[in-house]
Amino acid sequence: MRKIFASVLAAAMILSFAACGGGNAPSSSAPASSAPASSAPAESTPAESTPEASGDTVKVGIAIYKFDDNFMTLYRNELKRYFEEDLASKNGVTYELTIMDGKGDQAEQTNQIDGFIASGMDVIICNMVQSSSAATVVEKCKAADIPVIFINREPSAEDLELWDKVAYVGADARQSGTFQGEIVLETENKGDFNGDGVISYVMIMGDPENVDAQYRTEFSIKALEDGGMKVEKLFEQRADWDQAKGQELANTALTQFGDQVEVIFCNNDAMALGAAQAIAANGRKVGENIYLLGVDALEEAQQMVKDGEMTGTVLNDHINQARTAADVALKALNGETIEKNYTVDYVKVTG
């Protein structure tokens, strides 16, 4: 197998937003619970081939922490499309993808990585179930001399330094948390409905081991404090990125604290969609007596922001992240020097 030259990194955002809101939304916000546990290797016939690349096949293993996740469904679909359409046409190469569902089980995903190595993958793109297990994956890939690009869930800096053919592509979750807090500060009452000078809030977290959950939780509140507001945490629990759990926890918080709750922060849109259901069931109305924030800018969440049913969300740009991950993977495969971190900016989405 002859290694190919990597394509240049995608340089421009393709999503545009009017008034910090609208624009091109993700194509679907539905969970991928019906997706198969793995996708069969897929081939694409290049639109143009060169003598140098003709007949080349690049085998790409893609490990996703859980198919039943709104955001990662959009992400993996764009990865597949970009490899099989854009890159295949541009490079005159067949990209044979094997995409595996980790089902939220690190042991299962580690076995899948072993399978990728045994089957001779040329490069691996990995969305870890547990980022704390990244070192194990790096060591396995290093021993097999297979570059590995981590996505969405950031390994530690120490793990990224274990080898020169490993990198992380994602977004700075501190920025997304900061944007959530700033959206609240940009409201007329700065999140203080009862005028007591204190923002009383509920925090619904993702998986607390995930650095995104940690940073979004910390920096959303830090933004409020940096903006001169006092805060009161009424309730904070994990819902593990799940809509049903988000609804359950929001209902518990609203039942327990009633009108004291002025803001509900959710670490992602799926949990925010659940919280919106709980808000309605408890007779509260977003914008009138409570604020609700999410992250990901799923299509359904964007529409709810436009309709006034959510205060705001933050675009987690799956398109440019997916394209960057693919481009970096090919750079590493080609033996080019790669950076340790590639960051794609978040974007505020408000009504």
Could you explain how this protein is built, in words?
The chain is an alpha/beta fold and 351 residues long. Helix content is 37%, strand content 20%. The protein has ten helices and 13 strands. The chain has helices at residues 70-91, 106-118, 134-144, 157-160, 173-185, 211-226, 243-257, 269-281, 299-306, 318-333, and strands at residues 38-42, 57-64, 94-101, 123-126, 148-151, 166-170, 198-205, 230-238, 263-266, 291-293, 312-315, 341-343, 347-350. Strands 1-3-2-4-5-6-12 form a seven-stranded mixed beta sheet, sandwiched between helices. The protein is elongated and about 65 Å long. The N and C termini lie far apart (51 Å). Residues 1-55 have low confidence and may be disordered.
Give the tags.
351 residues; alpha/beta; 7-stranded mixed β-sheet; 4-stranded parallel β-sheet; 13 strands
Task: Briefly characterize the structure.
By secondary structure, the protein is an alpha/beta fold. Helices cover 37% and strands 20% of the residues.
List the helices and strands and how they pair.
Layout: E1 38-42, E2 57-64, H1 70-91, E3 94-101, H2 106-118, E4 123-126, H3 134-144, E5 148-151, H4 157-160, E6 166-170, H5 173-185, E7 198-205, H6 211-226, E8 230-238, H7 243-257, E9 263-266, H8 269-281, E10 291-293, H9 299-306, E11 312-315, H10 318-333, E12 341-343, E13 347-350
Parallel strand pairs: 2-3, 2-4, 4-5, 5-6, 6-12, 7-8, 7-9, 9-10
Antiparallel strand pairs: 1-3, 11-13
